[in-house]
Design a protein that fits this description.
This protein is an alpha+beta fold. The chain folds into two domains: 156 residues, Beta Polymerase, domain 2 (2-Layer Sandwich); 171 residues, Orthogonal Bundle (cca-adding enzyme, domain 2), CATH 1.10.3090. The strands form three sheets. An eight-stranded mixed beta sheet has the order 1-10-9-2-3-6-5-4. A two-stranded antiparallel sheet has the order 7-8. A hairpin with a 4-residue loop joins β9 and β10. α13 packs antiparallel against α14. The radius of gyration is 24 Å and the shape is elongated. The model has no long low-confidence stretch (mean pLDDT 91).
Length: 393
């Protein structure tokens, strides 16, 4: 397949918007006779006027050749080595062009062979992620018609969508992520393949799926994303307990929490708070049916037991290696709500002991989300913030 080269008059990317160290790395590789490009999401985001999270580089240089050029380079990986070039706390990932499996049969069994730059472009998931940027020529190199799809705001797989989803079903999750994040339409054949092959997601490693979901929780589009997950049926497959327990009211409350969390003026949302957004409506529902409907008021120990059971059923059962520290943090956030606003209003709890806990700020932030929907929560949120601010003086 012939590439199309678009010079700077045909695209909006300016070198001023590219990380200076990434430019240094590419220019040094080129000076030593290698080709080197900015690739993937970095190019896509620059074209969409979004600040890239990463500036990944692909090159014709082999890993040992990259290491020989950069003293601040560490090679990682066993099956396919990647170069991490460190500048202070910043790490730039540099990969050698690789080829990809193209047979229409099984899951990807190898993706660890060196290849050409064209093969490297064709092995990528979607056309919007298959563009290369050459800083020396100020040009975009396009083997996959990705620039046209970005201009038309279309999401499309590179190659046959059914084959690509069956090779790596996690691509379906990534597709929905991009739909939520950049609000592009899914091309008809790609959407048809997504719907017809949804069950393929169960063949993927739970760890890989969880890793992708964690990335999405950091993008401030969690509400849009999980609405799409519901729409396509992925919530039912990946979180069966959550899907069966969320009815109309609790589902609406969950999405309201997620919208509020997404809208917070912070650099990056806190994954534990976002996961608490899913579980809090279910915990409220469980407390209501187990205790309050029976004219009983549970004590904190009973609430904690319900919380642990809920976390196990909804998160650990589908994802057995769900991090223990995250489970404990989510449990603390949820249980602290019943110390902020006890079910028995006469009980105030020991606020100073609660406030001394290292995870208290996360619990207080979740109370802040609740404060938008409940006057009592708003009063308690204001009270605890005032006490917390005075304790810092």
């Amino acid at each position: 397949m012939l590439s199309k080269i678009f010079l700077d008059s045909k695209h909006p990317i300016s070198e001023k918007s590219i990380d200076a160290d990434a430019l240094k790395v590419m220019h040094r590789l080129k000076r030593h006779g290698y080709s080197a490009y900015l690739v993937g999401g970095g190019v896509r985001d620059l074209l969409l006027n979004i600040a890239p999270k990463d500036f990944d580089i692909a090159t014709s240089a082999k890993p040992d050749e990259i290491k020989a050029l950069f003293r601040n380079c560490l090679l990682i990986g066993k099956r396919f080595r990647l170069a991490h070039i460190r500048f202070g706390s910043k790490v730039l990932e540099v990969s050698t062009f690789r080829s990809g499996q193209t047979k229409d049969s099984n899951l990807i069994t190898h993706d660890n062979e060196f290849g050409t730059e064209e093969e490297d472009a064709l092995r990528r998931d979607f056309t919007i992620n298959g563009l290369f940027y050459d800083p020396q020529e100020h040009a975009i190199i396009d083997y996959v018609k990705g620039l046209k799809d970005i201009e038309n705001r279309i999401l499309r797989t590179i190659g046959n969508p059914t084959m690509r989803f069956c090779q790596d079903p996690v691509r379906m999750i990534r597709l929905i992520k991009f739909q939520a994040r950049i609000d592009f339409s899914i091309e008809a054949e790609t959407k048809k393949a997504l719907i017809e092959n949804i069950d393929e997601i169960l063949k993927s490693s739970p760890d890989r799926i969880l890793g992708e979901l964690f990335k999405i929780l950091e993008t401030k589009v969690s509400s849009k994303f999980f609405k799409l997950m519901d729409e396509y049926g992925f919530t039912h497959l990946l979180f069966p307990q959550l899907s069966s327990s969320l009815d109309g009211d609790s589902k609406e409350l969950t999405h309201r929490f997620l919208e509020l969390a997404d809208g917070q003026e912070i650099h990056q949302p806190e994954k534990n708070i976002l996961l608490a957004c899913f579980l809090y409506p279910l915990l409220e529902k469980k407390i209501q049916s187990t205790y309050l409907d029976q004219d009983k008021v549970p004590h904190l120990g009973e609430i904690y037991s319900l919380t642990k059971e809920l976390i196990t059923d909804t998160l650990v059962t589908p994802f057995p290696r769900f991090p223990r520290w995250m489970r404990e943090t989510i449990a603390f956030i949820l249980n602290a709500q019943y110390r902020f606003t006890p079910l028995d209003p006469k009980k105030r709890g020991r606020k100073f002991k609660l406030m001394s806990h290292k995870k208290f700020p996360l619990a207080l932030r979740f109370l802040g989300l609740r404060s938008f929907m409940n006057d009592r929560c708003a009063q308690e949120y204001g009270r605890f913030r005032r006490i917390n601010n005075r304790s810092k003086l």
